[in-house]
Amino acid sequence: MEALRKVRDPELHKDLVSLNMVRNVAVKDSAVSLTVVLPIPSHPKRDELEKAVREELGKLPGVNEVKLSFQTEVPAGRRGPAEKAPVTGVKNIIAVASGKGGVGKTTVAVNLAVALASLGARVGLMDADVYGPNVPLMMGVNEMPRAKGERIEPLNNYGVRVMSMGFLNPGDRPLIWRGPMLHSVIQQFIRNVEWGELDYLVVDLPPGTGDVQLSLIQTVPITGAVVVTTPSDVSLEDARKAIEMFRQVKADVLGLVENMSYFICPHCGGRVDVFSHGGGERTARAYGVPFLGHIPLDPDIRVGGDTGVPIVSKGAESEQARAFYELARAVAARVSALNLAQPPEQLIRISE
Ligand SMILES: Nc1ncnc2c1ncn2[C@@H]1O[C@H](COP(=O)(O)OP(=O)(O)OP(=O)(O)O)[C@@H](O)[C@H]1O
Ligand SMILES: [Mg+2]
Question: Which CATH class is domain 3-72?
Fold first, then answer.
């Protein structure tokens, strides 16, 4: 264990022992066997980690063989005040938010969820945009969910469990509801849906800082929020409000993602900064929140949304899906880093 304290996880930048990543250590004659628990799905630097573990253990006198196995286990978020009861089986709730409408929250939420699932995580996607639910269209699912006793079974596509108001109120009839009813539907979507065991429940929020956002943040322990913006000043101005809202209610901002960042012209290959450039990174720096990456403006991302075939379903190797997979990896790493860094006294307070 002392030797393993010298090995740092290259993604989480802490040693394996403090991160509680080492299990089942056994020494038999000159062979050491151990399991390393990886806290992020499809750990991108697993090979590097393996090499470092073998190297450090190999330096110990008398060790001739290292039997190393890996296992993935996403740590659960237990942050936030004790009055917010955790959702049974759900390890982490990730809200996707923005100040301004139409900047690509739903596109980001859908592609983030499908990317996390294809990296091997158990993922749910809850459409909290009760008035304008776009998740059914973008996920290519739309049927009436079945009841299971008192609970609702989510639908399933691309390995993601999905729930949306759009399933219950299909067609173009608008919902006209006031705050208290919104509150109750958000609660039911979180607590009365049979989500099962999830590493991540991604929640697609409506734009702004209104009733739905507050209802969600105040009643369930969200691990953190991904704030979506475009690089334009009007969008950034509203993104700052969203960051401030999460700060005020003491929810973590996992980071800022800049969508519709730039456009590569398919005819000349030139780059066009349609909505300006660099604003997302600047704002993230100014507010001390991580910058999670740029997503290009790409007509195929729009087509993927409109046809219910998210661009990330092309797979992690696809050049067009690359930005979303990088985002998914950055979000997973940040969630695990936050959860593993939580002070032990918080754990005790919650279990009381
Ligand atoms: N990176 C992108 N490239 C091309 N089109 C995009 C991109 N991101 C989003 N879009 C398109 O822009 C439109 C708005 O995106 P989306 O519905 O995801 O935004 P939103 O923030 O969820 O909107 P609302 O505030 O209404 O919920 C959609 O047609 C979507 O396909
Ligand atoms: Mg939306």
Answer: alpha beta
